[in-house]
């Protein structure tokens, strides 16, 4: 069989993502802080981008109908601005606070950023090392103490054996125990303990309660029984009344089983809302938070330089940067426009939540919003990722408004978040001596909401909200 070369014409269709589309998709799923960082980085790298001094860039819209709609929106906004008292209207949710005018009149030295005034929170390791250096231990013992502190987890417990510490410090195991004994009595008391019993016993010793043999034995040998509320065997063994046992329990609950928890956690993350929703008369107004986000435009100075470029390499460089700057401006405009439309649709579907709170949250899925605004579900999913909205009932993530449905007896549906809110309220109002079981909560939900919900579903929702079971919520008389 002879081999030969042939030319063949073939027509196929395939989806090709242009760089502009890739950039637009990437910007959709960025959080607000990530978007600000991306824009600022692009301004540093692209000489054709500069911050506009006016209200913002006007992106040309090829569709005349959308241009007419945008013009009508501008006229409507101007009409509202003339008739409304913006200071009272925006309230505490304003992107620019009422104190901004006062701040402008302050001296430069008084306008130090909050980051410069913020004192870093001491770490558990640093706090213990400070005490170790001030202790009366010898230099050799301090070296062992450094190894011990280096093996303490964020919870405050020691995650290494005495033999491991002796090997790392290069000392006999007998020299580790005295140092460990001293470190366990540093602040917070009980740190570097190996078990919960050891941690609590150290605290009992420092409080001077070791003479109470019942208390010591309860902590040392029966901590699991206390946790699982197996009280009757303890009452028989120690010949106690329920009131006496309750006194011991109250004392044990004052101890700290996680001595390093107050140091181990990271700094709190503050959320900056992407959108504000205000109630004005009988309607809701949506405002995008563009505080800190530069309004971009093409630099006129570099445009003149591009026109005067002599070599082909310069012209190609200028054209590439101009094209990249134009894509970024249009992608930002499209992102903000998409975010506004999605929030507007959410407000329409979840108006009951914005009126009365989480109890009236309706079932909602991404497809409902996508069909309403004429976009794909993936676009809605990206634009609602890591985005937050300030509502009259607090700051919520956009994903919060999408929840599954539970069938009611009359054929209608109720959102799962509404059911969770009612479960939380029922547990908060229960008698702590007779807590509600999951089965009883299901019966109450059926009576109040007319919803058929199984006991295991109640348990699933309760667990998702980090609420313990009824046996662990029960308190003694």
From TrEMBL:
At the top level, the lineage of the source is Bacteria
Keywords on this record?
A: DNA-binding, DNA-directed RNA polymerase, Nucleotidyltransferase, Sigma factor, Transcription, Transcription regulation, Transferase
Domain (RNA polymerase sigma factor 54 DNA-binding) spans 316-474
Domain annotation RNA polymerase sigma factor 54 core-binding: ranges? 114-302
Against InterPro entries, the record matches this protein to:
RNA_pol_sigma_54, RNA_pol_sigma_54_core-bd, RNA_pol_sigma_54_DNA-bd, RpoN_core-bd_sf
| Pfam families in the record | Sigma54_AID, Sigma54_CBD, Sigma54_DBD
Kindly provide the name given to this protein in its UniProt entry.
RNA polymerase factor sigma-54
Organism encoding this protein = Nitratidesulfovibrio liaohensis
Gene designation per UniProt? rpoN
